[in-house]
């Protein structure tokens, strides 16, 4: 069985990446296209099919047994459809059916991108060896996924663990999702920058208003920039503690661009966790930076495909 491969697709608003991946998580071949995110659904699908065509043209393709897809969400694994917020041409789009057709009828496993990254971190990254883990991506949005009882827990539709839309501020700002005070509305990169600007932070002469620019200002000691990261850390801590209290995770792994701020985020986050994760069974909860980097989506999509049915033990996911 070790000679079998799976195809993996990582679909986001910026790029569509594809790979052939072996049972050890090694990427043997890659393909990539820009996502024509503002075009109609079939144009976006053509970019996916271009990526698949590169994979099917490989001499390795004959060993591919299944396809794993990690997609920006929401996804609906039970229906095989995707409706990524940042790809408006896809609403209830039948991605599984289209990918199955483009790959000659291979079985297809669809999960959300946060769940895919969780699968990768559990298989080969910072959550390896942990049976109960939350993995989060904090970047333009805040996503996540769960490992419970040693197994990936995508939930019926593939969206379980979507911590970005836990409300941590009852009277907080309205979130585009329709709720209020969501983790994402406080802790995502754009919202860290928004809060800093609203509170009086001003960018340098080049006008960079990204979260990275706020992080640079915080490192230089700007109190408003520091406070914006501390507020984000507090929101993340409240969401992580709620999750840990609910399902008894023992590690929270955090990746994504905002996690690149390092101690600016992790130091106040660990401190805030002591305020929120107070019950005896969550006090030992640890927080760690993600290790898998930009290949996490592909490796996690491959893990999901490898764990279909009887292959569950092969991937150790």
TrEMBL record:
Pfam family of the protein (one): ROK
Cited PANTHER family: N-ACETYLMANNOSAMINE KINASE, ROK (REPRESSOR, ORF, KINASE) FAMILY
Membership in a protein family: Belongs to the ROK (NagC/XylR) family.
Name this protein carries in UniProt: ROK family protein
Origin organism lineage: Bacteria, Bacillati, Actinomycetota, Actinomycetes, Kitasatosporales
